[in-house]
Write a structure and sequence with these properties.
With 150 residues, the chain is mainly alpha-helical. It is 69% helix and 8% strand.
Length: 150
């Protein structure tokens, strides 16, 4: 049992598992923020723009509720909650936009880092050596050969 616990502890303490856990916690908190933003800020604003309609309560009743003789609900109403659906769509669009911007910023930062790395490698690489210049003796030998040909 101790060995199993030790292996589990080693697994949990790996960096990637901890990073994933932190990511899930931050994503959950971020989801709560965006849900609140959409439901409490954007939807009332959109409803105000469209004539004071509360979009959260924008429903289409397909089948009304049925009451019995005592006035209690015998059958629940069948309702399409369009407002809830619109809220979920707006929430998704906001999250997708923010994820897109984060990925775009990450890719730009990676491009800049790769460009710096490439530039550093180019500067560190030795310049191409020029072919060795002929010595005085070699030049004189070439001149002599040319004179002998004529």
């Amino acid at each position: 049992m101790k060995k199993l616990f030790a292996e589990f502890r080693a697994f949990i303490m790996r960096g990637n598992v901890l990073d994933m856990a932190v990511g899930v916690i931050i994503a959950t908190a971020f989801g709560a923020i965006t849900t609140t933003l959409v439901q409490k800020v954007l939807m009332p604003l959109i409803g105000c723009i469209f004539g004071g309609v509360d979009l959260d309560k924008l429903n289409i009743v397909l089948k009304p509720e049925v009451l019995d003789e005592a006035g209690e609900v015998a059958k629940e109403a069948v309702v399409m909650e369009i407002g809830t659906f619109l809220t979920a769509i707006i929430n998704f669009i906001i999250v997708a936009l923010i994820v897109f911007l984060i990925v775009k910023a990450f890719n730009k930062a990676r491009e800049v880092a790769e460009a710096k790395k490439k530039k550093a490698e180019e500067e560190a690489a030795p310049a191409e050596e020029e072919p060795p210049k002929p010595t005085t003796e070699e030049l004189l030998q070439q001149i002599l050969e040319e004179l002998q040909k004529k």
